[in-house]
Amino acid sequence: MGGGGQLTEPGESGSRRAGGVYTWEEVQSHCNRNDQWLVIDRKVYDITHWAKGHPGGHRVISHYAGEDATEAFTAFHPNLKFVQKFLKPLLIGELAATEPSQDRNKNAAIIQDFYTLRAQAESEGLFKAQPLFFCLHLGHILLLEALAWLIIWLWGTSWTLTFLCSIMLATAQSQAGWLQHDFGHLSVFKKSSWNHMLHKFVIGHLKYGIKKIKYMPYHHQHQYFLLVGPPLLIPVYFHIQIIRTMISRRDWVDLAWSMSYYLRYLCCYVPLYGLFGSLALISFVRFLESHWFVWVTQMNHLPMDIDHEKHHDWLTMQLQATCNIEKSSFNDWFSGHLNFQIEHHLFPTMPRHNYHLVAPLVHALCEKHGIPYQVKTMWQGLVDVIR
């Protein structure tokens, strides 16, 4: 159900036929690690075996075991018709006619209104990407990389120029991080395969060769938590550990992309700084970029009430778990438009340049149903992380 992986054919879900009729009580009883059912559009699916090979990771889909996953399924899959063929072998039946469409105490009115809002966003073209936006974004990353090397090549390796080079490289790395995030969420191209291909290029070759979401054990908003105020070597330690994981899992494609980054970097900077100097430079760049990443991502999450056991509808759950940082040209650029974290969580496959267009619609819907819609200043968000 996630947008970050490539699909493989599912295995058989078991011996059950697709003609069963079930109550919510029956579905909710199948929510343990070795027995998992979920509901999508009133259809009941046995995902026990499929969860292990789920492209978005087993944690994401297993989270909805015993629950209605319709809203999450719609949010994470840009091409619903395509994924239907993966659902068909998992189908074991449907909800009884006497059962409501929503499980537990979810608000049917909120669910319906949010469905209407999403349909409106689709009709207004807010899920269509603007190629020029992403081309310009990629272009400014490449320009920063080129200028960082050029100033050292032309004017030498003084402390001042080295610091300026580090700032430019860290900026390029951070912006590449936001760009790979776009491809990882399948929000740039209509075809998932194109998103996957460009995602590997950006995260593997332009950035520092590490697919953090795939190899770190926690959700992306917590994976670098220890880097808030870290020693200089912690980012390097994480990189070494993840590369070791790639080797142990024999993920040679990702490893090749990773090595292509380091090969390019060393070829550019070893002639200027030597091997030790180049490693020191890249470690300092890691230090700067990891702080940038952590402070931006955590100011939308850490101060919020994140409790996945409350079984709320999609809108309410996302609004409780995140907040926005106010819009400005700088904030949009600095955070990769993740200052609109509410809209990103609600519509994970929407191109980020459209978040500000859908935000007023989301805000109005929240006001209608009395759901708090929190917007902070950048400074307030950073202070809340410290608290």
Secondary-structure blueprint:
Layout: E1 20-22, H1 24-28, E2 31-32, E3 35-40, E4 43-46, H2 58-62, H3 70-76, H4 80-87, E5 91-95, H5 108-123, H6 131-155, H7 159-184, H8 192-206, H9 212-215, H10 234-248, H11 252-298, H12 314-321, E6 324-325, H13 329-335, H14 341-346, H15 355-369, E7 375-376, H16 378-386
Parallel strand pairs: 1-5, 6-7
Antiparallel strand pairs: 2-3, 3-4, 4-5
Span from first to last CA?
34 Å
The arrangement of helices and strands along the chain is: EHEEEHHHEHHHHHHHHEHHHEH
Class per helix and strand makeup: alpha/beta
What is the percentage of strand-forming residues?
Answer: 5-15%
Number of strands: 7
Task: Write a structural description.
It is an enzyme of class 1 (oxidoreductase). It catalyses: (8Z,11Z,14Z,17Z)-eicosatetraenoyl-CoA + 2 Fe(II)-[cytochrome b5] + O2 + 2 H(+) = (5Z,8Z,11Z,14Z,17Z)-eicosapentaenoyl-CoA + 2 Fe(III)-[cytochrome b5] + 2 H2O. It holds the Pfam family FA_desaturase. The protein is built from 16 helices and seven strands. It has 387 residues and is an alpha/beta fold. 56% of the residues lie in helices and 6% in strands. α5 runs antiparallel to α15 and α8 (192-206) crosses α11 (252-298). The protein starts with 19 loop residues before the first strand and ends with a helix. It is globular, with a radius of gyration of 22 Å.
